[in-house]
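input
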Amino acid sequence: MVLLLTNDDGIEAPGIRALLEAVRQLNARPLIAAPLEHQSGCGHQVTTTVPIHVQKRSEMEYAIAGTPVDCVRIALSHLCPEVNWVLSGINAGGNLGSDVYISGTVAAVREAALHRIPAIAISHYKRRGQEIDWKLAAHLTMNVLEKLVSRPLEPGTFWNVNLPHLEPSSPLPEIVFCKPCTQPLPADYRVEGDYFHYAGEYQKRRRDPGGDVEVCFSGRIAVTQIRL
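output
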């Protein structure tokens, strides 16, 4: 099984190294094709008007000077057309509910789904002022991947996974299949003259009962199936 790994935090981000550690337990062959630089929040942006530089770092790793979607498009068309799954993450921050329209992490797997290739986005909700335990994140991701890669996935859909930010010594979280929250992100601004400074607090966002925001914020792993 060939797995394409990408992200939107950049090829040097700890999250993609944690993802690589997770997939090494799956008896699969990984290929990394990730942005050279940080691309968080770029959504489904593609590069079509300038050349995209591709740096081959090893037989299994490419740094691409483009967006996450560029990485998937180039990998599927040129670097490794025989990919079985596309995995994106582990993102440093949640991609819950309406975040999926903004997220480069999720856009990468949406692009895979457009090509009818099964795909999973993995993100890690981050509490303000606390660091992510990437070793634990890799372990949780491995557990989730073992469940998802063996489940049928309807063409034109993809999985969106959000890991909770656990307190130290917490028990391993439950995996919950749920619906994506449909509430908007906070749209709060501090006004100084003609300038509007965004002041929304992610932790105070609205939540649908039983939706992925509520599930993840309550300390469980939220898994949603999203249709194109």
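quick obs: The CA atoms of residues 136 and 175 lie 15 Å apart.
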